[in-house]
Design goal:
Elements lengths: L2 E7 L4 E5 H7 L1 E4 L6 H12 L4 E6 L7 H5 L2 E4 L5 H14 L3 E4 L5 H16 L9 E5 L2 H4 L9 H17 L5 E7 L7 H4 L4 E4 L5 H11 L16 E6 L3 E9 L21 H8 L21 H15 L12 H12 L9 H14 L9 H12 L10 H10 L4 H15 L7 H8 L4 H13 L3 E6 L2 E6 L4 E2 L2
Parallel strand pairs: 3-8, 3-9, 4-6, 4-7, 5-6, 7-8
Antiparallel strand pairs: 1-2, 1-11, 9-10, 10-11, 12-13, 13-14
Length: 479
């Protein structure tokens, strides 16, 4: 058994925590501000630093000092995008790096988005990289709140979903969640309920004491004992700690936080007159410079082409009652050029549509010659590998009818599967699915197959020779 000494019990004996059991059963730490939660987490991280990979979600920058003693990589999120953080999460698992995700310099909205993206990247890592890792989240009530707050619903859902995956589904992927919170009442119940080990510190609110007593299996009248706990004392319970509630005083630590607690400092004797001169010293106000006249930005290229076309029409009026429709072959060729562009698989639909409009105007067509929905369907059809003639067949029109019932972001995946099944070819691999979905994440692309099966448009079958997909209602099946 690999165990570490967490602290001392009431009788002075060592209280240990079984690390393999902790990795399998997760840990919840609760205590009011000043109860010693950060000290406890630091003790746990220091004692296990050489035994298991560690990932620390640090909203206050308290744990960046681990890098000086134990070589942790500190990731400052202020200059990182969500995509780069998601990729960093996958790479952390691949290289088994111990990291501290420092969220100190960003506002609450970005903290939720950054933590959610990073945790999702770790969660979506390939199976070959599912090494055991201790994922410690301080102030977990910020990332898994029981109710919405000042942040947007989108950021809250992203962070809450990542925390739920960590605590509910992380064990099979080697992710052991250790979450610490000031108030259990503010932490989402489906996140807290997945922990089997508990360390409950000092707390004063009745609702938090009652919930802590319920988690430890203590009687309600014994809940008031949480008010009497000293700083650094916790009631421990769980398969990795103790089979019965046990008092433990957390041991010393080697590192320290940059932030220090309040310390009384004697006041220096200064006369009131001197203070008046210092505090009420006149502020020199500078006259602001006159603003330069701002010129309007030049119109974009599409606007310039439209303006040029309007001038030509004014100078050379077109014959009345003549309407020229765009050639379908010409439209197909223009969309095919967009598909063939560099990096088009991962560009947003709006960017690709603007590229098409520009090409259409250069050819003398109206920029709105093909509306966005029709463009998206033609784009997905070309990406699926269909040619112009076959795209007009009755069979393919049936596939497009089914695709029209799906969200736009998965229509390309479905049409790729439909074309492959129509030609009885081998089922597309994960890379092809990812390109069709417009993502670099293979795990996210694989999940679209399960989504399409839930929508009852495909039947998914895993065989010894690989994956097979059948299209519901059309009778097509991949090899």
């Amino acid at each position: 058994m690999t165990s570490i000494v967490l602290g001392q019990g009431r009788d002075g004996s060592d209280t240990c925590i079984d690390l393999p059991e902790l990795l399998a059963t997760r840990l919840l730490v609760q205590g009011n501000s000043g109860s010693g939660k950060s000290h406890l987490l630091r003790r746990l991280l220091e004692q296990t630093a050489t035994l298991v990979q560690q990932v620390m979600i640090d909203p206050e920058g308290d744990f960046v000092t681990l890098a000086d003693h134990y070589g942790h990589l500190v990731i400052d999120v202020e200059d990182q995008s969500e995509a780069s953080l998601r990729a960093a999460g996958e790479r952390v698992r691949a290289h088994r790096a111990s990291v501290v995700l420092n969220l100190e310099q960003v506002e609450a909205e970005m903290q939720l988005r950054a933590a959610g993206a990073f945790l999702n990247g770790m969660f979506e890592a390939p199976r070959a990289h599912w090494y055991p890792a201790l994922v410690v989240v301080d102030e977990a009530q910020l990332f898994a709140p029981v109710a919405s707050g000042d942040t947007s619903d989108e950021a809250r859902r992203l962070s809450l979903g990542a925390m739920t995956n960590l605590m509910c589904r992380g064990r099979k992927r080697g992710l052991a969640g250790v979450i610490a919170t000031q108030r259990l009442a503010k932490l989402a119940k489906n996140v807290a309920a997945e922990a089997s080990n508990f360390l409950m510190g000092r707390t004063f609110l009745d609702i938090d004491m009652a919930r802590a007593a319920d988690l430890l299996g203590m009687e309600r009248r014994a809940a008031e004992s949480f008010r009497d706990l000293a700083r650094g004392q916790f009631m421990a319970l769980g398969p990795a700690l103790s089979r019965r509630p046990k008092l433990v005083a957390i041991g010393p630590v080697t590192t320290a936080s940059h932030a220090t607690g309040p310390v009384l400092v004697p006041l220096e004797p200064v006369s009131a007159e001197d203070l008046r001169d210092i505090i009420l010293e006149p502020v020199h106000e500078f006259t602001p410079r006159a603003r330069r006249e701002t010129r309007p930005p030049p119109p974009d290229l599409l606007a310039q082409l439209d303006a040029y076309g309007a001038e030509r029409e004014a100078e050379e009026p077109a014959p009345a009652a003549i309407s020229v429709e765009a050639d379908p072959d010409q439209l197909w060729s223009l969309v095919a050029e967009v598909v063939a562009g560099d990096g088009s698989d991962y560009k947003p639909l709006a960017t690709l549509y603007q590229d098409f409009q520009l090409r259409a105007r250069i050819q003398g067509l109206s920029r709105n010659v093909l509306e966005l929905g029709s463009f998206n369907r033609m784009l997905a059809t070309i990406r699926a590998g269909m040619d112009r003639e076959r795209s007009e067949s009755e069979q393919w029109k049936q596939a497009q009818t089914v695709a029209a019932t799906l969200p736009e972001d998965v229509q390309g995946v479905f049409l790729l599967l439909a074309r492959t099944a129509l030609d009885a070819e081998t089922c597309p691999d994960d890379d092809a699915l990812a390109r069709a979905y417009g993502t670099h994440s293979l795990g996210r692309a694989r999940r679209q197959l399960n989504y399409l099966e839930e929508r009852e448009v495909i039947v998914l079958q895993d065989t010894p020779l690989g994956r097979r997909v059948a299209i519901v209602g059309l009778g097509w099946q991949t090899a």
